[in-house]
Amino acid sequence: MTRHECTMCNRWNNDSDLRIIPLKHSFVTLNRDQFFPGYVLLFTREHVTELFHLKPRMRGELMEEVSRMAQALQTAFQPDKINYELLGNMVPHMHWHLVPRFATDPLWPRPIWSEAHGELLLTPEEYQNRIELIRKALA
């Protein structure tokens, strides 16, 4: 798969309405489906598929970006747990699904992939409100 064909490489531009923050090694966007409130995607700026493809220093700095985002989601949404998913089977570009989880959500405590669910799409204003909530928690 070329960089041009990669949906993750193009996500920052294609989903510009969902942008949260550009970081040194990654970009962060709100996931369009907000069935799980605060669900974000953090994906590497560089088209890589595996953590071991990164030099140790960059890998460490990237993990700090993942941790910083998780902490912001904890502050913004006060979930019972943050789920970290790094798969890449369907989209071979390193990206994390950072998902605030609540004991009250319909799939608790199972993984978010354990059962199909309807997409929860928000209005443009609701997306922007969630994005601002996360940005405020990052500050």
Q: SSE string, helix = H, strand = E?
A: HEEEHEEH
DSSP summary, beta strand count: 5
- Could you state the CATH homologous superfamily? HIT-like
CATH topology: HIT family, subunit A
Alpha carbon gyration radius: 15 Å
Main sheet: strands, sense, barrel = 5 strands, antiparallel
**Secondary structure category:** alpha+beta
How many domains comprise the coordinates?
1
The end-to-end span amounts to 36 Å
Q: What's the level 1 CATH class? A: Alpha Beta
- What is the CATH-assigned architecture? 2-Layer Sandwich
Which strands sit side by side, in order, in the main sheet?
1-2-3-5-4
Count up the helices. 3
The proportion of residues forming helix, as a percent range, comes to 25-40%
Shape: globular
Task: Give the low-confidence spans.
Answer: none
The fraction of residues assigned to DSSP E strands is: 15-25%
GO molecular function, one term: catalytic activity
Motif (Histidine triad motif): 93-97
Protein name: Histidine triad (HIT) protein
Pfam families: HIT
